[in-house]
Each structure stands twice: as structure tokens, then as C-alpha cells.
């Protein structure tokens, strides 16, 4: 029962499905072409493209869909090739980031399958090859991510109109890449340097990291990129950003909550994975702020330990709840979501676009995976 | 005494020096801008740009210089901004490839300094940070390489004329990236799968790897890219490739010889580094083809062993010489160089451009570092 919100119009739902299919088809045919090129020249190297194709079959396509409604809201035409190419470029960029992120975090799974470095490691083992399987897995996944990053750019630069040198869309695409990489570095740095920095500013630092590595990247940049491609005014793009930034922050805090409390069957990640990786999220920041010295020592001792026991994960979860950190994170999600919806109502776009954005926003912050 | 070859004209030398300086200045100001952007938003992340700036101060700039003479040979004007931007993009791409290559090969040094992952590892140790220093080094270097790859593209896409969507220069730049990554994967794969593949085709496989990961990338693509940017004809670009492919092959075989026999003081790499890394080069292929079964076992046992002793390196070197592999590699370098010079004489370019290309070719195949 959801009488308070208008349901998205049937036409909008159908239009989004057409775009989503066009992005999937675009990804498929672009990667097929690359696979054929490599098969002709160096067949063994086609394995890199296979890994990318496999990974990009999954995912929520949030960034591509935001780019699409940003494009439509700025007057771009239905299912236009420029918007499809932008979606393909964004999905490939996201895949590249995930492949390298999984190397950094030593994640075993992604989207419910083995992560790319684990896939190559298994291949090495099953063939009984020489030297260390884990080094081979790392090298192959690193190169797959590099290729995927390059292909993302190749897709982006194939957009004819509006994405050339000096354009606003190009500027956004460049800024997005730099900020994501900077944000991921801040994240890695915080894992290392965080314990020796003041607990009192841990939430603030976690917010800066999530803004760079996730919030702007997942929502602001895709939406504005779509808008810029369609020639949206500076004012429209600013109003897109006003709506999308709190949405992206809420999206990432939801992700952080799922990283500790999510159901592995839904997230495709092991339970409490963020604790094992030592991610110092807003959730951890709030916990550090509100727990006893002994609890803080316990948390610092186990956070980022690859061999953390399931029972310890249970105790850490209980601590996070007891400290009020989970409630604080849920409150932040609620406040940010409410701010985003407030800005959404101010957007100078058609009711169809506004409705589609509301549906995406709902999915982003209310999801369980 | 070098009476047989014409010395490059003084004007050409001066012109190349102007271009080289313009590329250094272009790199410096582009990276300064990026550093300032990051310092304003996320100061800690400026460390990534610092690492890139430090690495790109060194190097022979072979790819940028080839792009320049390719540009000039096709009628491009002296020290034009397009050629400088192409040089900046190529140098940044090379830096990105080196940063990730050093992670894959676990190299401690690059251009006479600690490799990027080792620099970040040392930073971690000196600050006494939490979690493992080597994991931090790997993560930070991986992200630095990703940023460098993105900045390379940003520089390339800022070339106004001739490098846009659908242009020949864009096609070459895209192909270069895909081929380098594919070639690096073939290299990693050969280290793992090579010992179980027939020794009789080891030289052939090594040649395919070097063509992809190095020869085309180091010479063919930069030269043709410069030519394409200046609007060179298909025929001119083909003649560039005819000259540059054997040159690039000779260049890489010289690199392989230096990787085993080079002087650490000149190469900036430890003695016999390629043996430690397990690189299965043309030199190794020839050795495998021409040694006894017992020698082959000895070679396979020690190749790619990170803890290989200096005395073992000496014995492996002696084996490579005794098998005739070093002489065979030198013969290949001589034949390929001679083929390249033959094609150089056929190039429809001015004597100045031809002279500059000859000087670069000499440096590429006769170097000791």
C-alpha cells in the first residue's frame, strides 16, 4: 500500500525499460567487437574482454539510468544514441572501479560471483600453471580493470555531439574519474591512518570519503552528465546537483549499513564484509564516538582483520547497535533522503522525469542489496 | 668517429629540444592544475599527483618524440600545441603502464628511484600506520596508475583538432591502449603457462608478446598518431608503420638483453631483474631451444624466483651466452634495425625529419639503459 506517492506512469516505466535494454545491447555489441579484434590478433587476451562482459551483465545500472533521466530532463530525445553511449561509458567505468576495488579490498565475491582476480586465480589453479596463482590473479585482474577503464573512455569519446574537447559533459566525465580515484585513495588512507587520527572527527572524515568516492560519482555526476550532454543550462545542472548530492550520500550510507548488516543472499557479499575489510564508514565513526574505551580497543583490534571470526562480527554488530550508531546512520539516511526529495520537487523538469527520478531515488535508499 | 652517417642538422636538434621542453612544461602545468584542484577539495589525495609528477620528470620521452616527428613528417607545424598535448598524453600513458607494471612484476625500482608502490609502502612504515604496509602500497599505487591513465586520456581529449570522435588519431590511441593491455596480459600468461607449452614455439610466442606490449606501442602507434593528427595520408602512415615495427621489435629485444645483461647503474634496475621476474623473452626462448634437458630444468627452476641468488643469475647468464641465445638476439636486433633503416630511406618526408628519426632509432637500439 503506497497511496501517498504517485506511481510512475506506465509510459515512463516502458521508456526506461527500452533505454535499459539499449544500454545492455550497446555494452554487448561493443564488447563483442573488442573480443573479435583480440581473437584475430591475440586469442588468449580475449579472456580479459570475457571477464568484463560477464561482470557488466549484472548490476543495477543506477548511473546509466540517472544519466538518462538527466538527459531527458534537459530536453534530450527518447532513447537517443548519445544517451545510450553515455550509459555504456558509465557502466564500463563502474565495472573498472569494481574490479580494482575488489583487488584492493581482497574481496572474494562481486555481484554474487567470484571477483575477477579470484576467477583468474581459479583458472591458474585448475590448469596447474607455474608460479603463484594469487599473483597471476592479481595481475590479470589489474590489466582487466585497466582495459575496462580504457574501453569506458573509448565509449565516452565515441559520443559525437556534446562530449568533445572543452564541453561541459567532458569536464564532468573527467572530474568524475579524478574524484572517484581520489576518494578511493582517501578510503585506503583512512583504513591505515584512521586509528591514529582523532575519533571526534571520524564521522566528518567518513563523510568526505563517501562524498568523493561514492555520492558525487553515483548520482551527481551521472545525472549532470546526462543533462550537460543535452545542453542543459547551468541553473538546471545546479538543481540536479542539489537533489543528487544528498541522495548519493544517503545511497552510500545505506551501502555502509548493508556492508555490516546486509543479507549475503541479497547483497552477493559475505556477511559483515566491510568489517573484515576495515572500512571506516560513517557507521564506524558514530560507534567510535559513542562507545567506551574498552569497546573502542575491541573495535580497533578486529576492524580490517581478514581472519575475523563470525562470532566477532556478531559482537561488533551488537556494539554498533548498542552505541546508537546504527540508529544515527538511519537518521542520516532519512534526513538526507528528505532533503533530496525536497530538491526533487523544485526541479524544472516534466512530471514524467520527476516521477522516474523519484522511483530511482526510492530504490537507491530503500534497497536491500 | 662516425663518418658514415650524417649528423642530425643543428636546426633539427634545436627544434627537438624546444618540443621536449614544451612537453615537460605541459606535463608540469597540467599536473600542477590537478594538484591544486585536489588540494582544494581533498588535500591528502594530492599525494597521487605528486607521485605521477615525480615519475614523469624522468624517462627518455621516446614516444613523445616519435609522435612529434610523425606530426612534422606529415606537414604539422613546429612545436604546435596539438603535438605537445599528444606528447603529454603519451608520456602519462607510459607512466600509468609503468606504475601498474611494477606492481605486477614486484619491481622495487623504476628510473633509478623506488617504484610507486614501494614509495607508498615506505610512507606507511615511516608513519607507523595500521594494517599491512605492502597492502597500502599496492592500493595506493594501483589508484595512482588509474588516475594517471585517466589523466592521459584527459590530455588526449583536450587536443582540439584531429583527435575527436571517429578520427584516425583517436582510433590509433584506442588501439594502442587495448594492445598494450592485451600484450601485458599475454606476458603474464606466458610466465604462468609458458613452462607447459612447447619450447619449440617459445621464440614465436615471445615475439608476439613483444609486438603487442612493446614494439607497436613504443614506436608504431606514437609515430602514426603524430602523422594522423597532422592529417597524413593512409600511404604515409603505412610507410611509418613499415619503418617503426622492426625498429620497435629491435628496441624491445635490446630491452630484453639489458634486462639480463644491463649495468644496474645505467638501467636503474637491479642486475638480472628480468630473470627474477620470470620474463619469458626472446632471449629465454632461444636458450630453451638450444640447451640440454638438464640446463632447461635448471633454467625453469630458477626463472621467476623472487629470491634468486646473484650467483645463480651469473650461471643463468653464462647459460644464455653458451647456448648462443645472446648472439641470436643480437643478430635479430641487427637484422631488424637494418630492415628499419631500409624503410626509413623510403619515407616520403623531408631530410630533417628523416635525420631526426634516424637519430631516435639509433638511440633506441644502441642504448645501454
TrEMBL record, chains A, B:
<keyword id="KW-0479">Metal-binding</keyword>
<keyword id="KW-0808">Transferase</keyword>
<comment type="similarity">
    <text>Belongs to the FPP/GGPP synthase family.</text>
</comment>
<dbReference type="Pfam" id="PF00348">
    <property type="entry name" value="polyprenyl_synt"/>
</dbReference>
<dbReference type="InterPro" id="IPR033749">
    <property type="entry name" value="Polyprenyl_synt_CS"/>
</dbReference>
<keyword id="KW-0460">Magnesium</keyword>
<dbReference type="InterPro" id="IPR000092">
    <property type="entry name" value="Polyprenyl_synt"/>
</dbReference>
<dbReference type="GO" id="GO:0008299">
    <property type="term" value="P:isoprenoid biosynthetic process"/>
</dbReference>
<dbReference type="InterPro" id="IPR008949">
    <property type="entry name" value="Isoprenoid_synthase_dom_sf"/>
</dbReference>
<protein>
    <submittedName>
        <fullName>Polyprenyl synthetase family protein</fullName>
    </submittedName>
</protein>
<dbReference type="GO" id="GO:0004659">
    <property type="term" value="F:prenyltransferase activity"/>
</dbReference>
<dbReference type="GO" id="GO:0046872">
    <property type="term" value="F:metal ion binding"/>
</dbReference>
